Amino acid sequence: MTGAIFLAYTVPFIPRSTVAGRTVRPWGVRRCMVVGMISLAFSFAVFAFISPTTGVLIVIGGLILHSVGQAYAYNISTTAAMDMVSEQKAGEVSGLVSSVRMMAIVFGVAITGALFKILEKNKMFELFAAVGRQLTNAERSEVKGLLSGSVTAQAKLAALAPSAAREVQRIVLDSFVHALNGVMILCLVLSILGIGSALLVRGKYPAALTASEQKQV
To answer: In this predicted model, what pLDDT tens digit does every residue of 10-25 receive, in sequence order?
Structure first.
């Protein structure tokens, strides 16, 4: 089911990439990148307010928005970078763009992953304290196992009384969603900054050459 839901992102991305390429000439790279970053910002805004009771249609809508944003922002940024250099330097610039993206992915995953775990664990311990339960180090390790999907932790959860198991599951779920919302808010802020960066892109994709201009070239 999860895989089917994620098709809402992958399926639109394929044709949208082609459409994005065709809109560069009439719109220009700056406008296309701004549209992409705005779509990404809206998608992160949707994800930032997801709750345990959020319907799947809202998630699908957010994934579609994200797909549109990625198609424009990701693909058009490559066009913008390559269009600013001569053909002789195309290989160097292409490698540089790829390197920057790889580094951004590495740091992005590391930072958001670390933030997620910090928010998740802090919220979890806060919720346990709210119900009057101070966890020992051993119990904290077991609950962390639940957060990571540990089979052993799941077996111990199943051995609890039904009411206690439901309470633990509620706390774990609320902690997960709290952390997810926090990370999505960070991504939303970065996307808004990305809109500002896209507005700074200089120039516009060149219009089609006339017949006389082609002869001169």
So the answer is: 888 777 767 766 777 7
